[in-house]
Amino acid sequence: MTDDFYDRWAPLYDRVARLPFLRSWRASAADALALGAGDTVVEMGCGTGANVPELRERVGSGGRVVGLDLAPGMLARARRHADRRGPEVSYLRGDASRPPVRDVDALLATFVAGIFPDPAAAVDAWCDCVAPGGRVALLNFQRPDGPLAGPLRPLFEGFVRLSAPGGRLSADSQADAFQRRVAAARNRLAERTIDQRAEIFGGGCLGLVSGRISRA
Ligand SMILES: C[S@@+](CC[C@H](N)C(=O)[O-])C[C@H]1O[C@@H](n2cnc3c(N)ncnc32)[C@H](O)[C@@H]1O
Question: Closest ligand 1 atom to the C-alpha of 43?
Answer without folding.
Answer: 6
